[in-house]
Amino acid sequence: MAVFVAMPKHMLVEIRAFYESCHHPHLAPVLEACRAGVEYRRRF
Questions:
Q1: CA-based torsion, 15, 10, 12, 7: positive or negative
Q2: What DSSP line would sit under 3-33, residue for residue?
Q3: 7 Cβ partners below 8 Å, 6+ apart?
C-alpha cells in the first residue's frame, strides 16, 4: 500500500471519501491508518 503514502493529502481525502461511500471492507483499515497518520502529523 505504498501508493497511499506517495499520494498528496487531498488525494487521500478524496480516495477515503470515495471508498467510504462504496463501503469497501478491504480498504477500510488502510484508510483509517492514513487518516490517523494525517491527524498525528497535524498535532506536531
A1: positive
A2: HHHHS-HHHHHHHHHHHHHHT-TTTHHHHHH
A3: 15
pLDDT in tens, the chain (44 residues): 455 555 567 676 777 777 666 555 666 677 777 777 776 666 65
The grid coordinates of residue 40 equal 498525528
Number of domains the chain is built from: 1
- Whole-number Å distance between alpha carbons of 32 and 18: 13
State how far the Cα of 29 lies from the Cα of 12, in Å rounded to an integer. 13
18 close to 40: Cβ distance less than 8 angstroms:
no
Which residues span the domain enclosing 28?
2-43
